[in-house]
Amino acid sequence: IQIESEFNELNISDSNSNGNHENCYKPNDGKLWCKECVPRYMIEGWTSGNNGIDEFIKDTIYDAKIGYDDYDDDDDDNDDSDGDDYPIFLEWVPFDKFEDIKQIGEGGFSKVYSAIWIDGKAKYIKQNDGSWKKKEPEPKKIALKKLNESQNISADYLNEIKIFWNFYLNETSDVYLKFYGITKDTKTKEFMMIIELANQGNLRSVLSNDFNNIFWNEKLSILSNMIFDLKGLHKLGYFHKDLHSGNVLQDNEHNEHSYISDFGLSRPSNEPRSYDKIYGVLPYIAPEVLNGEPYTLSSDIYSFGVIMTELSSGKPPFHNRKHDISLALEICNGIRPEFGKGTPEIYK
What we know:
Layout: H1 2-8, H2 40-43, H3 51-62, E1 65-68, E2 85-88, E3 91-92, E4 98-106, E5 110-117, E6 124-126, E7 132-134, E8 140-147, H4 155-170, E9 179-184, E10 191-195, E11 201-202, H5 203-210, H6 216-235, E12 248-251, E13 257-260, H7 287-290, H8 297-313, H9 325-332
Parallel strand pairs: 3-9
Antiparallel strand pairs: 1-2, 4-5, 5-8, 6-7, 8-10, 9-10, 11-12, 12-13
Helix pairs in contact: 6-8
Protein backbone atom coordinates (compact mmCIF):
# COMPACT_ATOMS: atom_id res chain seq x y z
CA ILE A 1 0.00 0.00 0.00
CA GLN A 2 2.84 2.37 0.89
CA ILE A 3 4.60 1.67 -2.43
CA GLU A 4 1.40 2.30 -4.37
CA SER A 5 0.80 5.52 -2.43
CA GLU A 6 4.29 6.72 -3.28
CA PHE A 7 3.76 5.91 -6.96
CA ASN A 8 0.54 7.88 -7.04
CA GLU A 9 2.51 11.01 -6.18
CA LEU A 10 5.40 10.42 -8.61
CA ASN A 11 6.20 13.26 -10.96
CA ILE A 12 6.82 11.47 -14.27
CA SER A 13 7.69 14.13 -16.80
CA ASP A 14 6.48 14.26 -20.37
CA SER A 15 9.12 13.00 -22.81
CA ASN A 16 9.44 16.47 -24.30
CA SER A 17 9.85 18.34 -21.02
CA ASN A 18 13.03 16.79 -19.62
CA GLY A 19 16.17 15.17 -20.92
CA ASN A 20 16.10 12.39 -18.33
CA HIS A 21 13.70 9.90 -16.78
CA GLU A 22 12.23 11.57 -13.71
CA ASN A 23 12.93 8.67 -11.34
CA CYS A 24 16.34 7.35 -12.37
CA TYR A 25 17.73 10.33 -14.32
CA LYS A 26 18.84 8.20 -17.26
CA PRO A 27 18.57 9.85 -20.70
CA ASN A 28 14.97 10.04 -21.85
CA ASP A 29 14.31 7.52 -24.64
CA GLY A 30 10.70 8.53 -25.25
CA LYS A 31 9.31 6.05 -22.69
CA LEU A 32 7.60 6.88 -19.42
CA TRP A 33 10.08 4.81 -17.46
CA CYS A 34 12.67 2.06 -17.86
CA LYS A 35 13.34 -1.25 -16.12
CA GLU A 36 15.31 0.57 -13.43
CA CYS A 37 12.66 3.14 -12.55
CA VAL A 38 9.34 1.45 -13.35
CA PRO A 39 7.18 1.31 -10.19
CA ARG A 40 8.12 -2.02 -8.61
CA TYR A 41 4.65 -2.98 -7.40
CA MET A 42 3.48 -3.09 -11.02
CA ILE A 43 5.90 -5.87 -11.93
CA GLU A 44 6.37 -7.69 -8.62
CA GLY A 45 4.12 -9.69 -6.31
CA TRP A 46 2.02 -11.38 -8.99
CA THR A 47 2.23 -14.19 -11.52
CA SER A 48 -0.08 -15.71 -14.09
CA GLY A 49 1.58 -19.08 -13.62
CA ASN A 50 2.98 -18.89 -17.15
CA ASN A 51 6.42 -17.35 -17.68
CA GLY A 52 5.66 -16.33 -21.26
CA ILE A 53 2.52 -14.43 -20.27
CA ASP A 54 4.28 -12.83 -17.28
CA GLU A 55 7.09 -11.53 -19.47
CA PHE A 56 4.64 -10.32 -22.11
CA ILE A 57 2.64 -8.28 -19.58
CA LYS A 58 5.80 -6.87 -17.98
CA ASP A 59 7.14 -5.86 -21.39
CA THR A 60 3.97 -3.85 -22.04
CA ILE A 61 4.55 -2.07 -18.71
CA TYR A 62 8.21 -1.35 -19.48
CA ASP A 63 7.24 -0.02 -22.91
CA ALA A 64 4.15 1.91 -21.77
CA LYS A 65 3.27 4.86 -23.94
CA ILE A 66 0.76 7.68 -23.64
CA GLY A 67 -2.75 7.20 -24.96
CA TYR A 68 -6.01 9.10 -24.80
CA ASP A 69 -8.76 8.01 -22.42
CA ASP A 70 -11.78 8.13 -24.68
CA TYR A 71 -13.95 5.75 -22.66
CA ASP A 72 -14.14 7.83 -19.50
CA ASP A 73 -16.81 10.50 -19.85
CA ASP A 74 -17.34 11.33 -16.20
CA ASP A 75 -14.15 13.10 -15.17
CA ASP A 76 -13.92 14.40 -11.63
CA ASP A 77 -14.64 18.12 -11.66
CA ASN A 78 -12.08 18.55 -8.89
CA ASP A 79 -9.35 16.88 -10.92
CA ASP A 80 -6.89 19.48 -12.17
CA SER A 81 -5.73 17.27 -15.01
CA ASP A 82 -4.80 18.83 -18.31
CA GLY A 83 -6.74 16.22 -20.23
CA ASP A 84 -7.30 12.50 -20.04
CA ASP A 85 -3.88 11.28 -21.17
CA TYR A 86 -2.87 7.99 -19.55
CA PRO A 87 -0.17 5.30 -19.80
CA ILE A 88 -1.18 2.27 -21.88
CA PHE A 89 -0.10 -1.18 -20.70
CA LEU A 90 -1.63 -4.60 -20.04
CA GLU A 91 -2.57 -5.70 -16.54
CA TRP A 92 -2.58 -9.09 -14.86
CA VAL A 93 -5.94 -9.17 -13.07
CA PRO A 94 -6.89 -11.83 -10.48
CA PHE A 95 -10.11 -13.62 -11.43
CA ASP A 96 -11.82 -12.58 -8.18
CA LYS A 97 -11.72 -8.98 -9.44
CA PHE A 98 -14.62 -9.81 -11.77
CA GLU A 99 -18.28 -10.30 -10.92
CA ASP A 100 -21.60 -10.88 -12.68
CA ILE A 101 -19.88 -13.09 -15.28
CA LYS A 102 -22.28 -14.24 -18.02
CA GLN A 103 -21.55 -16.18 -21.20
CA ILE A 104 -22.61 -14.21 -24.28
CA GLY A 105 -20.96 -16.09 -27.13
CA GLU A 106 -19.00 -19.14 -28.21
CA GLY A 107 -16.79 -20.03 -31.13
CA GLY A 108 -14.82 -23.08 -32.12
CA PHE A 109 -11.83 -22.21 -29.94
CA SER A 110 -13.09 -19.71 -27.37
CA LYS A 111 -16.00 -18.56 -25.22
CA VAL A 112 -16.93 -14.93 -24.58
CA TYR A 113 -18.41 -13.55 -21.36
CA SER A 114 -19.58 -10.17 -20.18
CA ALA A 115 -18.46 -9.19 -16.68
CA ILE A 116 -18.04 -6.29 -14.28
CA TRP A 117 -14.39 -5.47 -13.63
CA ILE A 118 -14.62 -4.31 -10.02
CA ASP A 119 -11.61 -1.97 -10.06
CA GLY A 120 -11.66 -1.14 -13.74
CA LYS A 121 -8.65 -0.20 -15.82
CA ALA A 122 -5.81 1.40 -13.84
CA LYS A 123 -5.52 4.97 -15.06
CA TYR A 124 -2.90 7.59 -14.27
CA ILE A 125 -3.99 11.08 -15.27
CA LYS A 126 -1.58 13.86 -16.18
CA GLN A 127 -1.94 16.97 -14.01
CA ASN A 128 -1.36 20.59 -15.00
CA ASP A 129 1.98 20.60 -13.20
CA GLY A 130 3.21 17.63 -15.27
CA SER A 131 2.81 15.03 -12.50
CA TRP A 132 0.73 11.83 -12.75
CA LYS A 133 -2.07 10.89 -10.38
CA LYS A 134 -3.78 7.53 -10.17
CA LYS A 135 -7.55 7.78 -10.49
CA GLU A 136 -9.82 6.10 -8.00
CA PRO A 137 -10.92 2.57 -9.01
CA GLU A 138 -14.13 2.60 -11.02
CA PRO A 139 -16.13 -0.53 -12.02
CA LYS A 140 -16.27 -1.18 -15.73
CA LYS A 141 -18.29 -3.61 -17.84
CA ILE A 142 -15.98 -5.57 -20.12
CA ALA A 143 -15.75 -8.78 -22.14
CA LEU A 144 -13.71 -11.82 -21.14
CA LYS A 145 -12.55 -14.02 -23.99
CA LYS A 146 -11.71 -17.48 -22.63
CA LEU A 147 -9.15 -19.31 -24.77
CA ASN A 148 -10.18 -22.97 -24.76
CA GLU A 149 -7.55 -25.47 -23.59
CA SER A 150 -5.09 -22.64 -22.90
CA GLN A 151 -3.71 -24.10 -19.67
CA ASN A 152 -0.61 -24.93 -21.72
CA ILE A 153 -0.79 -22.07 -24.18
CA SER A 154 1.65 -22.46 -27.06
CA ALA A 155 4.37 -19.90 -27.81
CA ASP A 156 2.96 -19.48 -31.32
CA TYR A 157 -0.49 -18.65 -29.98
CA LEU A 158 0.95 -16.22 -27.46
CA ASN A 159 2.64 -14.48 -30.38
CA GLU A 160 -0.79 -14.05 -31.98
CA ILE A 161 -2.02 -12.36 -28.78
CA LYS A 162 1.02 -10.09 -28.97
CA ILE A 163 -0.05 -9.12 -32.50
CA PHE A 164 -3.44 -8.11 -31.09
CA TRP A 165 -1.64 -5.95 -28.51
CA ASN A 166 0.79 -4.43 -31.02
CA PHE A 167 -2.13 -3.51 -33.25
CA TYR A 168 -3.91 -1.75 -30.42
CA LEU A 169 -0.71 -0.11 -29.13
CA ASN A 170 0.26 1.26 -32.53
CA GLU A 171 -3.22 2.24 -33.68
CA THR A 172 -4.82 3.37 -30.43
CA SER A 173 -7.93 5.46 -30.99
CA ASP A 174 -11.65 5.22 -30.43
CA VAL A 175 -12.08 3.11 -33.55
CA TYR A 176 -10.11 0.09 -32.36
CA LEU A 177 -11.26 -2.58 -29.93
CA LYS A 178 -9.40 -2.09 -26.66
CA PHE A 179 -7.29 -4.80 -25.00
CA TYR A 180 -6.94 -4.24 -21.24
CA GLY A 181 -5.21 -7.27 -19.77
CA ILE A 182 -5.23 -10.99 -19.04
CA THR A 183 -6.77 -13.11 -16.29
CA LYS A 184 -7.24 -16.84 -15.61
CA ASP A 185 -10.33 -18.83 -14.72
CA THR A 186 -9.51 -20.27 -11.30
CA LYS A 187 -11.60 -23.40 -11.95
CA THR A 188 -10.52 -24.42 -15.45
CA LYS A 189 -7.08 -22.69 -15.36
CA GLU A 190 -7.77 -21.36 -18.87
CA PHE A 191 -6.49 -17.90 -19.73
CA MET A 192 -8.88 -15.09 -20.64
CA MET A 193 -8.28 -11.84 -22.50
CA ILE A 194 -9.87 -8.73 -20.99
CA ILE A 195 -11.21 -6.65 -23.86
CA GLU A 196 -13.70 -3.91 -24.59
CA LEU A 197 -17.33 -5.03 -24.63
CA ALA A 198 -19.21 -4.40 -27.86
CA ASN A 199 -22.75 -4.14 -26.55
CA GLN A 200 -24.59 -5.24 -29.71
CA GLY A 201 -22.67 -8.47 -30.25
CA ASN A 202 -21.37 -9.50 -33.65
CA LEU A 203 -22.48 -8.45 -37.11
CA ARG A 204 -24.04 -11.85 -37.87
CA SER A 205 -26.43 -11.59 -34.92
CA VAL A 206 -27.27 -7.97 -35.77
CA LEU A 207 -28.14 -8.93 -39.35
CA SER A 208 -30.21 -11.89 -38.17
CA ASN A 209 -32.22 -9.83 -35.70
CA ASP A 210 -32.57 -6.44 -37.35
CA PHE A 211 -31.63 -6.57 -41.04
CA ASN A 212 -34.75 -4.76 -42.29
CA ASN A 213 -33.93 -1.74 -40.12
CA ILE A 214 -30.35 -1.35 -41.36
CA PHE A 215 -30.19 1.20 -44.14
CA TRP A 216 -27.54 1.54 -46.84
CA ASN A 217 -25.78 4.45 -45.15
CA GLU A 218 -25.37 2.27 -42.04
CA LYS A 219 -24.08 -0.65 -44.12
CA LEU A 220 -21.50 1.60 -45.75
CA SER A 221 -20.48 2.89 -42.31
CA ILE A 222 -19.91 -0.69 -41.12
CA LEU A 223 -17.74 -1.41 -44.16
CA SER A 224 -15.84 1.84 -43.66
CA ASN A 225 -15.05 0.92 -40.05
CA MET A 226 -13.92 -2.54 -41.13
CA ILE A 227 -11.62 -1.31 -43.87
CA PHE A 228 -10.11 1.20 -41.44
CA ASP A 229 -9.23 -1.66 -39.06
CA LEU A 230 -7.90 -3.81 -41.90
CA LYS A 231 -5.75 -0.97 -43.16
CA GLY A 232 -4.20 -0.57 -39.71
CA LEU A 233 -3.54 -4.30 -39.43
CA HIS A 234 -2.01 -4.56 -42.89
CA LYS A 235 0.12 -1.46 -42.29
CA LEU A 236 1.81 -3.33 -39.43
CA GLY A 237 2.53 -6.24 -41.76
CA TYR A 238 -0.13 -8.60 -40.39
CA PHE A 239 -3.09 -10.41 -41.96
CA HIS A 240 -6.32 -11.31 -40.17
CA LYS A 241 -6.68 -14.82 -41.66
CA ASP A 242 -10.20 -15.46 -40.32
CA LEU A 243 -12.39 -12.50 -41.22
CA HIS A 244 -16.13 -13.21 -41.14
CA SER A 245 -19.28 -11.58 -39.78
CA GLY A 246 -18.90 -13.35 -36.42
CA ASN A 247 -15.59 -11.51 -35.93
CA VAL A 248 -17.03 -8.07 -36.66
CA LEU A 249 -18.35 -6.59 -33.41
CA GLN A 250 -21.00 -3.89 -33.17
CA ASP A 251 -21.25 -1.21 -30.50
CA ASN A 252 -23.59 1.73 -30.01
CA GLU A 253 -22.89 2.75 -26.41
CA HIS A 254 -21.27 6.05 -27.40
CA ASN A 255 -21.87 6.00 -31.16
CA GLU A 256 -22.47 3.39 -33.80
CA HIS A 257 -19.24 1.58 -34.53
CA SER A 258 -17.90 -1.70 -35.88
CA TYR A 259 -14.69 -3.42 -34.82
CA ILE A 260 -12.74 -6.30 -36.31
CA SER A 261 -11.64 -8.80 -33.65
CA ASP A 262 -9.78 -12.10 -33.27
CA PHE A 263 -6.67 -11.47 -35.36
CA GLY A 264 -5.23 -14.93 -35.99
CA LEU A 265 -6.81 -16.38 -32.83
CA SER A 266 -9.25 -18.80 -34.43
CA ARG A 267 -7.33 -22.01 -33.85
CA PRO A 268 -6.41 -24.23 -30.86
CA SER A 269 -4.49 -22.24 -28.23
CA ASN A 270 -2.45 -25.22 -27.03
CA GLU A 271 -1.05 -26.22 -30.44
CA PRO A 272 1.78 -24.71 -32.48
CA ARG A 273 0.69 -23.07 -35.73
CA SER A 274 0.26 -25.68 -38.46
CA TYR A 275 0.86 -24.51 -41.98
CA ASP A 276 -0.84 -27.63 -43.33
CA LYS A 277 -4.20 -26.91 -41.68
CA ILE A 278 -6.77 -24.32 -42.67
CA TYR A 279 -8.85 -22.78 -39.89
CA GLY A 280 -11.82 -20.53 -40.49
CA VAL A 281 -15.40 -20.38 -41.77
CA LEU A 282 -15.45 -21.98 -45.22
CA PRO A 283 -17.55 -19.48 -47.25
CA TYR A 284 -15.22 -16.62 -46.24
CA ILE A 285 -11.93 -18.38 -47.06
CA ALA A 286 -10.24 -17.20 -50.24
CA PRO A 287 -9.96 -19.84 -53.00
CA GLU A 288 -6.17 -19.57 -53.15
CA VAL A 289 -5.98 -20.43 -49.44
CA LEU A 290 -8.25 -23.44 -50.01
CA ASN A 291 -5.78 -24.44 -52.74
CA GLY A 292 -2.95 -24.50 -50.21
CA GLU A 293 -1.41 -21.10 -50.85
CA PRO A 294 -0.42 -18.84 -47.91
CA TYR A 295 -2.64 -16.12 -46.52
CA THR A 296 -2.03 -12.67 -47.98
CA LEU A 297 -3.53 -9.20 -47.87
CA SER A 298 -5.71 -10.25 -50.79
CA SER A 299 -7.10 -13.15 -48.75
CA ASP A 300 -8.45 -10.67 -46.20
CA ILE A 301 -9.93 -8.51 -48.96
CA TYR A 302 -11.71 -11.57 -50.39
CA SER A 303 -13.30 -12.18 -46.97
CA PHE A 304 -14.26 -8.50 -46.84
CA GLY A 305 -16.02 -8.91 -50.19
CA VAL A 306 -17.99 -11.89 -48.90
CA ILE A 307 -19.16 -9.79 -45.95
CA MET A 308 -20.30 -7.17 -48.47
CA THR A 309 -22.64 -9.74 -50.02
CA GLU A 310 -23.91 -10.67 -46.56
CA LEU A 311 -24.66 -7.03 -45.74
CA SER A 312 -26.63 -6.71 -48.98
CA SER A 313 -28.75 -9.84 -48.49
CA GLY A 314 -28.89 -10.22 -44.71
CA LYS A 315 -28.08 -13.91 -45.08
CA PRO A 316 -24.84 -15.79 -44.40
CA PRO A 317 -22.97 -16.77 -47.57
CA PHE A 318 -24.08 -20.16 -48.92
CA HIS A 319 -26.54 -20.45 -46.03
CA ASN A 320 -28.57 -23.04 -47.92
CA ARG A 321 -25.66 -25.41 -48.54
CA LYS A 322 -23.51 -27.74 -46.52
CA HIS A 323 -20.06 -26.36 -45.79
CA ASP A 324 -18.18 -29.37 -47.09
CA ILE A 325 -15.51 -30.41 -49.58
CA SER A 326 -17.97 -30.04 -52.43
CA LEU A 327 -18.54 -26.36 -51.63
CA ALA A 328 -14.80 -25.82 -51.19
CA LEU A 329 -14.14 -27.22 -54.67
CA GLU A 330 -16.84 -25.03 -56.19
CA ILE A 331 -15.38 -21.93 -54.51
CA CYS A 332 -12.00 -22.84 -56.00
CA ASN A 333 -13.72 -23.15 -59.39
CA GLY A 334 -15.31 -19.70 -59.17
CA ILE A 335 -18.67 -19.90 -57.41
CA ARG A 336 -19.35 -16.83 -55.24
CA PRO A 337 -22.11 -15.70 -52.84
CA GLU A 338 -24.84 -13.62 -54.43
CA PHE A 339 -25.76 -10.03 -53.60
CA GLY A 340 -29.26 -9.39 -52.29
CA LYS A 341 -32.12 -8.10 -54.42
CA GLY A 342 -32.17 -4.33 -54.79
CA THR A 343 -28.44 -3.95 -54.26
CA PRO A 344 -27.20 -0.79 -56.06
CA GLU A 345 -25.01 -1.62 -59.07
CA ILE A 346 -22.25 0.64 -57.79
CA TYR A 347 -22.00 -1.58 -54.68
CA LYS A 348 -21.34 -4.80 -56.60
